Amino acid sequence: MHILVLGGAGMVGRKFIERLAHDGQLGGKPVTKITAQDVVAASAPAAAPFIFDVVVSDVSNEGEAESLIASRPDLIVHLAAIVSGEAEADFDKGYRINLDGTRHLFEAIRKVGGGYKPRVVFTSSIAVFGAPFHEKIEDEFFTTPLTSYGTQKAIGELLLSDYSRRGFFEGVGIRLPTICVRPGKPNKAASGFFSNIIREPLNGEEAVLPVSDQVRHWHASPRSAVGFLVHAATMDTAAIGPRRTLTMPGYSCTVAEQIEALRKVAGENVVKRIKRVPDPVIDGIVAGWPRNFNPQRSTALGFKAESSFEEIIRVHIDDELGGNFVK
Questions:
Q1: d(CA 198, CA 212)
Q2: Does residue 3 contact residue 73 with C-beta atoms inside 8 Å?
Q3: What are phi and psi of 326, to 5 degrees?
Q4: Is the distance from CB of 121 to CB of 106 less than 8 angstroms?
Q5: What is the DSSP string of 92-107?
Q6: Distance (Å, rounded) from C-alpha 248 to C-alpha 305?
Q7: What is the arithmetic mean of pLDDT over 83-110?
Q8: Which of 54, 73, 77, 307 sees the fewest Cβ atoms within 10 Å?
C-alpha cells in the first residue's frame, strides 16, 4: 500500500506517519511506501518498515499535484492547509493553498483515468459553521462560515462530495475539532491559545489568554486526530452516502473549564502561569466559531474522541512530556 500524505511535516501528519510506522499496516494491508509532501521536509519516523519518500513542494503550484500522484498512491491524506488566523490575515495565500491546492489535487486524480480511484481523506474544519448556532450543532446544520478559512474548507467539502459522486475517487471528509493540546511551538492558528494555555504552563512557561474565560469550544487530542484519519482511511464508506464529510466527535468546554481541568491535573502553581491579555482580533474571530456538537453520524460510524478535558490534558502529558511536567 502506497500512501501520499499532503502536509506530512505538520503535527498531525507527523503523528499519523509515526502511527503507520508503529503498526506497519493499515486496514490489514502492509504499508510499503509513504510519500510525505510539505513546504518543508518531513522527518522520517524511527525504524519505519516502509520506503519513506520526502517531497518539498507547494501543492498549489501548477503541475505539482500531477507529479505527486503520478505513481498512483492507494490512499491520499490531504492535511495541507494555511491555518485559520493566517488565512484571515492573508486572503490571497489562504485561497491559493486551501482552495486552489485542493482543486488541483482533485483534478489531477480525475485526469489520471484508467480505473484509478484512490481513497482520499480530506481534513476539513468546524470553521465551516457560522453563527447563529444551536446549543448543539446537529449533522443537518447548514454551513455558513464567517471566516475565509471556513469558506475555503466548505468549498473543499462540496468538491469532495461532487468528485466522489462522479466516481473520480472515494472521498471521506472529516471536520476536525480544534486539536488540543498541540505539541511544539505556537502556530498562526487563531485557535492556538487553547493549546498554549495548557502546554506552556506545563512546561514551566507563561502563556497568554487573549479571550474571555467564558469562550466555549470543541476539542479533541492529537491522538484522537490520528485515530480519525486511520478510521477514515479504512472504514466501509457505504454508510456515508452522498454527504461525504462528517463532523468528528470531541469534547465541548469553556476556557474556564479548561483551566479548572488543568488545576485538577497539575495544580494551582501551573495555572498561575496563565496571563490574561485581551486581543480583540482573536476574540472577534473566535466569536464566530461553533461551540458544541451532536455528531451522531460520525459516532455511529465508529469515530471516537475523549470524554473530558482532563483526559485531553493527560494524553498530552503522556504522549509529549513522558508523564512529567513542571510543577
A1: 16
A2: yes
A3: -85, 115
A4: no
A5: HHHIIIIIIHHHHHHH
A6: 8
A7: 95
A8: 307
How far is 255 from 194, CA to CA, in rounded Å?
8
User: Is residue 191 scored above 90 in pLDDT?
Assistant: no
Phi, psi of 247 (to 5 degrees): -80, 125
Q: Is the preceding peptide bond at 132 cis, omega within 30 degrees of 0?
A: yes
Amino acid letter, 148? S
Model confidence band, residue 309 (pLDDT cutoffs 50, 70, 90): very high
User: How many residues does the structure list for the chain?
Assistant: 327
- At 192, list the grid cell: 492556538
Phi and psi at residue 285, to the nearest 5°: -65, -50
Partners of 6 in the beta sheet? Answer: 37, 78
Query: Which is more confident, 217 or 189?
Result: 217
Amino acid at 187: N
Q: Which of 61-75, 95-109, 125-139, 156-170 has the weakest average pLDDT?
A: 125-139
**pLDDT tens digits, 198-250:** 999 999 999 999 999 999 999 999 999 999 999 999 999 999 999 999 999 99
Residues serving a catalytic function are 149
CB burial class (10 A; 0-12, 13-18, 19+) of residue 144? Answer: middle
- Grid cell in block for residue 36: 510525505
Q: Are 11 and 17 spatial neighbours (Cβ–Cβ below 8 Å)?
A: no
